[in-house]
## 1
Amino acid sequence: PKSPLRDDALWEAAQLEEAQGRWQRALRRYRQLLAKRDYPLLKAGSYNSVYVDDAQLRRGEITWKRLRRPRRALEIFRQLRDDFPHSRLRDDAQLHIAVIIRGLGQDVRACDALVLLLRRFPDGNRCRRARALQKQWRCKNLKTISK
């Protein structure tokens, strides 16, 4: 448990569980990774594993796509977006949020979620996809974020 390779082992174990379709077991491994999330006392750095935000993203994707629990997945993705300020995956989470909301039949809110992505993460790698979805979904708020 105190091995410096513990996080690597948990990540690999979760990946193996996913490959075998054992969704609940994979989620448990990802939660174990997240449980080790540390907060520095002086906010002068981070002691988090490199897998922490990836584990949160995978939790959301499994919950949404495999377990078909979109509302629970929304909570997980919002937590990634809001509670992981240095993660490069925050825009991925926001894009998933928009797609899930659209799947729930809330088109206006989905378009608003795309605008939020483009405003909060203008340099993110999901901006191109967000713009394409705005056009595809015929969002009325398209003009407010065009680049």
Note: The two ends are 49 Å apart (CA to CA).
## 2
Amino acid sequence: AIVLEEVERYKATLRTGSEMPWKRFWNTDGYGAATEPQIENEDRDRLLELLRPRFERYGIAAGLPEARRGENTRADILLLSHAGNNLPIEAKRHYNAELWTAAISQLAGYASDAQACGFGIYLVFWFGTEFRTPSRGDCADVPESPEALEEMLTDDLPFEMKDKLTVVVLDVSRPDSMIAATEKRRKKRRRLG
């Protein structure tokens, strides 16, 4: 509950913070414009770096990236408490090919650890509709917003896991004005170059 509260608090500031927190998940050009999403591991590490100080006051002893789990797998983030409990987090970009299956095929296994008590967080970084969300395989429309994606992924969880696994989608998409300005600069460079 504590981790979810802090993640949700951070999520609420992504689009409203004056320092543009969403931009920290992007590579930038010489003008400071967001140009390409960072790789998934960089996104994960950045989020862990930002949240680690917030977690310390709650007795979360450590936050580990790429923590080894059973069957020679690795959780993207593993939070450890002083009491010996842990909370696995699986992170994906919204256009990852495993988007629709990772909550069950990866996170559920990490959460089955005795010290995790079945709990886990499926964290998705939404980079906007300019990056194609993979097809679900059931002919359903792909989501057009981070809220719709979060709802779809939550609905996909098996009933018995809905109270243990939580889906959180962080909107780190570029504003339309930045997309347009970046594209304008690219076109200008092509004409000149």
Note: The helical segments are 2-13, 40-56, 102-111, 146-156, 176-192.
